[in-house]
Amino acid sequence: MHTPFDFKEGADRTVYVKPVAVADLPKEVQDSAGGHEQLYAVHDAEGGQLALVTDRRTAYVLARQNDLTPVAVH
Fold first, then answer.
1. Residue spans per domain, the chain
2. C-alpha closest to that of 25 among 15, 37, 16
3. By CB neighbour count within 10 A (0-12 exposed, 13-18 middle, 19+ buried), where does 71 fall?
4. How far from 65 is each of 31, 35, 37, CA to CA, in Å?
5. Is the Cβ–Cβ distance between 12 and 45 less than 8 Å?
6. Is the pTM for the entire model greater than 0.85?
7. Digit-coded pLDDT (tens) for 16-34
8. How far apart are CA 4 and CA 44, in angstroms?
9. Hey, is 28 helix, strand or coil?
10. Which of 20, 38, 46, 52 is 20–30 Å from 32 (CA)?
């Protein structure tokens, strides 16, 4: 089974966490945002989105649970 957090051997294990305005997301994501105005996206080094979560802490925990190094993007 492959998940977005499966990185190739020797690959850069850094992921980037950035805030995302819910208003900038597709309508179906906005509808499921539970009233949040901002979410946090976790991206790989190539810019691919791996996850979208409700808060920064969860983004960091998710990254670390997958043996990745989270870095904040402003």
1. 14-72
2. 37
3. middle
4. 28, 27, 26
5. yes
6. no
7. 999 999 999 999 999 999 9
8. 9
9. helix
10. 46
